[in-house]
């Protein structure tokens, strides 16, 4: 028998990734700073997850930001302000 999705299980507590993904689906357009403020999860944890989603093609950066995706060398505040879309 298949399990119910986590958000449909009564009293279910979402883990960090589920909570981030839920907020991304709700917002559609977001920054890492937005997600950190809403979920109270560390920005570094959110960044790691969002970069994985970006590499897998689930989210994309908005705007003319053509920074390399393989190297993160910019300032943390700039990273928090990068805009993404689902």
Describe the structure.
The model has no long low-confidence stretch (mean pLDDT 81). The chain has a three-stranded antiparallel beta sheet with strand order 1-3-2. It has four helices and three strands; from the N terminus they run αβααβαβ. The protein has helices at residues 16-27, 32-39, 43-56, 76-81; strands spanning 29-31, 60-61, 83-85.
Instruction: Please tell me what the overall shape is.
Output: globular
Q: Which strand order do you get reading across the main beta sheet? A: 1-3-2
What number is the mean pLDDT? 81
User: What is the count of β-strands?
Assistant: 3
Number of continuous helical runs: 4
Catalogue the unreliable spans.
none
Throw out a few tags for this protein.
4 helices; mainly alpha; 9% strand; 3-stranded antiparallel β-sheet; 86 residues
Give a short summary of the structure.
By secondary structure, the chain is mostly helical.
Summarize the helices and strands and which ones pair or pack.
Layout: H1 16-27, E1 29-31, H2 32-39, H3 43-56, E2 60-61, H4 76-81, E3 83-85
Antiparallel strand pairs: 1-3, 2-3
Helix pairs in contact: 2-3
């Amino acid at each position: 028998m298949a399990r119910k999705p986590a958000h449909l299980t009564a009293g279910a507590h979402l883990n960090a990734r589920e909570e981030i993904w839920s907020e991304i689906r709700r917002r559609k357009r977001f920054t890492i700073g937005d997600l950190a403020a809403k979920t109270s999860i560390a920005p570094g944890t959110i960044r790691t997850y969002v970069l994985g989603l970006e590499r897998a093609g689930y989210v994309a950066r908005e705007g003319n930001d053509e920074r390399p995706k393989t190297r993160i060398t910019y300032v943390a505040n700039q990273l928090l302000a990068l805009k993404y879309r689902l």
